[in-house]
Design goal:
mainly alpha, 2 domains, 7 helices, elongated, iron-sulfur
């Protein structure tokens, strides 16, 4: 839980509420700093998703208001010849071409995706 709370892009942590989930979640408030320490994660190998967009919304909020997750989802599906996804993309209020290249999303991405550059690739793909 501490890992999630320490991430700037995570605004809320909402655990499931079934059986004893609530009791276990509230127990977090009583544990020591040592028990909250997640530095062990650093010894694991680099994620295989590095430099690849994943749909976690760590890059949000976009300063221009783009839904980068949805833009990427429609792009990925359209490249797989999903015509419905391409149509949905074309009906978005804000598209990849609306990116102002502020690099806000690039700085927030834990997977090191250069999303602002990727927006140009998406723009070119959809001929905007």
């Amino acid at each position: 839980m501490q890992y999630a709370l320490d991430k700037l892009s995570i605004l809320t942590v909402l655990p499931g509420i079934r059986n004893d989930d609530l009791t276990r979640t509230l127990h977090y408030l009583e544990v020591s700093d040592v028990e909250k320490d997640y530095s062990i994660l650093r010894i694991f190998p680099i994620l295989e998703n590095c430099n690849q967009f994943v749909y976690y919304k760590h890059c949000h909020p976009c300063s221009k208001g783009l839904d980068t997750t949805l833009i990427n989802k429609y792009y990925d599906l359209a490249r797989l010849k999903d015509e419905l996804a391409a149509d949905h993309y074309h009906h978005l209020a804000l598209k990849a071409s609306d990116c102002i290249v502020c690099h806000h999303c690039d700085k927030r991405c834990p997977f090191h995706v250069q999303q602002s550059e990727h927006m140009q690739e998406i723009t070119d793909y959809f001929h905007e």
